[in-house]
Specification:
Length: 353
């Protein structure tokens, strides 16, 4: 990144870097906060405006992609396919294409916003905007630790149909094995069993905090879906689709618009998808298509709505760290996410429909 002189080319390159990390860090808020302490200072010191940097970081996980994503796992299970196959054969080709296009969209959109808002780079204000410098303690972490987040994905793909293996490894098993490997790394580095276990306690504390929100969303989503079915809404929807002659194309367009809107309003892709996913097998059966053809585009599209919302956890968190309004950040993510939604629709109907 140091070789890139243009701040907007650097912005595009940073977006590409963040999208590579998405596959290994399947948490929108987690990845956004990680980028705020690593990528954000680099961008600010290179002449990128804080709002442009926040716009890119806010879109860090615009799609729930990868075998570690909860929505991807649910979509694969609902469609009856292996999560590694769902990632490699469905998500990855679309994801790569959309990322390449959105890289240029971000460069032009963020530059347009900077000109519109009169941003002027002030070298004297860099340290205030970028935050604290890297400490000597930070530099002591071995570089080999960079492979740790990659291990779960490697295990899941290697032990799957995609790699031709007869052994299957689920996400939970891969995560547990990877965690044990991380503990061994720490034991070698620190040589103090007590300190390593004390730091490992943070793993359970963090997991507990996340599970509170995730499990609540799952329960609410299942309750909402069950309510739709018991109230007759599902039957009415299926009957209406039959009577109106709705096919797959109409269902994808209408359903995509609904999940986009719901994820935007809720500020959560999980809440919207866990509410709709249980309904999709019946809809797919009625219109006579495989479930994967209906659930795949909807699972992708809802991510764009979440990344556009000012109440999304990641956008609220990074705007708080930067001391700006979440609405200002959402303004920077909204146009690229509209482009992403349009690109996804076009790509789906050209290659998967």
């Amino acid at each position: 990144l140091k070789l890139i002189k243009s701040p907007y080319v650097l912005l595009g390159a940073s977006f590409l870097v963040s999208q590579i990390m998405v596959i290994f860090v399947p948490s929108h808020a987690g990845l956004a906060l990680l980028l705020m302490v690593t990528l954000y200072p680099i961008l600010i010191r290179s002449g990128v405006s804080p709002m442009s940097a926040l716009g890119v970081i806010g879109c860090a996980q615009f799609v729930d992609v990868g075998p570690g994503s909860g929505n991807a796992i649910l979509a694969a299970q609902t469609a009856g396919v292996d999560v590694s196959e769902y990632f490699v054969y469905y998500q990855l080709p679309l994801f790569v294409g959309v990322v390449i296009i959105l890289t240029f969209v971000h460069m032009f959109v963020q530059r347009w916003w900077d000109k519109r808002e009169g941003w002027v780079f002030d070298p004297n204000n860099i340290q205030t905007l970028a935050g604290a410098k890297t400490t000597e303690q930070d530099k002591k972490v071995p570089k080999i630790y960079a492979i740790l987040p990659i291990i779960p994905l490697f295990l899941i793909i290697f032990f799957s149909k995609v790699a031709g293996s007869h052994i299957r490894m689920d996400v939970v098993t891969a995560m547990v094995i990877s965690t044990v490997i991380a503990i061994i790394f720490e034991l070698i580095r620190l040589r103090n069993f007590r300190d390593v276990l004390a730091s490992f306690k943070l793993f359970f504390e963090g997991m507990g905090k996340i599970l509170v929100s995730v499990v609540s969303l799952i329960v609410c989503g299942e309750f909402f879906a069950a309510g739709l079915i018991k109230s007759g809404f599902m039957g009415t929807l299926i009957t209406a689709a039959n009577d109106a002659g709705f096919g797959l194309a109409t269902m994808v367009i209408v359903g995509g618009a609904l999940v986009w809107l719901f994820s935007f309003i809720m500020g959560s892709g999980n809440a919207a998808f866990f509410s709709f996913a249980p309904l999709l097998p019946n809809v797919a059966h009625v219109i006579g298509v495989p479930i994967i053809q209906l659930i795949f585009p909807l699972q992708v599209i809802l991510g764009f709505g979440r990344a556009s919302s000012p109440i999304t956890g990641a956008i609220v968190a990074i705007s708080g760290l930067a001391g700006v309004s979440p609405f200002q950040v959402a303004k920077r993510t909204f146009i690229p996410m509209l482009f992403g939604t349009a690109i996804t629709y076009i790509a789906y109907f050209l290659f998967w429909y």
